[in-house]
Amino acid sequence: MAREVNWNAINAPISGILSDVRIMNTASDSTKPGDNIDSWCGKCKMVLAHTIEAMVGKKPARVSCNTCKSQHSYKANPPGEGSRKTPGSAPSPRRSANRYQSLLKANGESAVKAYSPASKYEQGDVLEHPTFGRGVATAVRDGTKIDVLFESGSKILIHGR
Ligand SMILES: [Zn+2]
Questions:
Q1: Phi and psi dihedrals of 21, rounded to 5?
Q2: pLDDT the model gives residue 36
Q3: How far is the CA of 68 from the centre of ligand 1 (A)?
Q4: How many A from CA of 37 to the centre of ligand 1?
Q5: Long-range contacts of range 108-117, CB-CB < 8 Å, 24 or more positions apart?
Q6: Arithmetic mean of pLDDT over the chain
Q7: In the chain, what are the domains?
Q8: Which of 52-56, 94-98, 156-160 has the lowest mean pLDDT?
């Protein structure tokens, strides 16, 4: 018995919300199909004047390009804007080789330590690895991992084990 009463209580407010939405949609008057609007055109590769073909709520959904007449979805801004590549985010092999050389010079070759996972290293330590050769510890990640820059590139090594 109690369950039936609950269902009725849930249904009533939902139908009320649906009729509210319908009233709001008919009230929109700012932009409408047939209006001109600036949109990105993927064919022209430019932001150009477009004609609105279809709306979703108060926003243009489909537009047609006034220049090339192609129909596509509305895009206010060119794609990829704001995601510019930051120069130097991916260092070239040449650049990391230069960094390796200058780090070796800066830290001196007098105190080269033989690499062993049991030893502890600090930033700036120069060490000799049996496989990778001579490297410079560029960062201590935590108690057990260090970043070491070798001539072949940066590697994560175990230390202090
Ligand atoms: Zn176009």
A1: -60, -45
A2: 96
A3: 4
A4: 13
A5: 115/157, 117/157, 117/158, 117/159, 117/161
A6: 81
A7: 32-80 (2.30.30), 93-158 (no CATH)
A8: 94-98
CA dist., res. 95 & res. 135, Å (int)? 16
Q: What is the pLDDT of residues 18-47, one digit of tens each?
A: 544 544 444 445 789 999 999 999 999 999
Ligand 1 centroid, distance to 50 Cα (angstroms): 8
Distance from the CA of 85 to the center of ligand 1, in angstroms? 26
Specify the pTM.
0.41
Q: Of 81 and 21, which is predicted with more confidence?
A: 81
Q: How many CB atoms are closer than 10 A to CB 159? A: 23
CA of 65 to the centre of ligand 1 (A): 5
Å from CA of 43 to ligand 1 middle: 5
User: Is the pLDDT at 6 greater than 50, yes or no?
Assistant: yes
pLDDT at 122 over 60: yes
Q: Using the mean position of ligand 1's atoms as its centre, give its distance from the Cα of residue 52 in Å.
A: 13
| CA-closest candidate to residue 60, choices 76, 44, 41 | 76
Ligand 1 center to 48 CA (angstroms): 7
Distance 71 CA to ligand 1 centre (A): 8
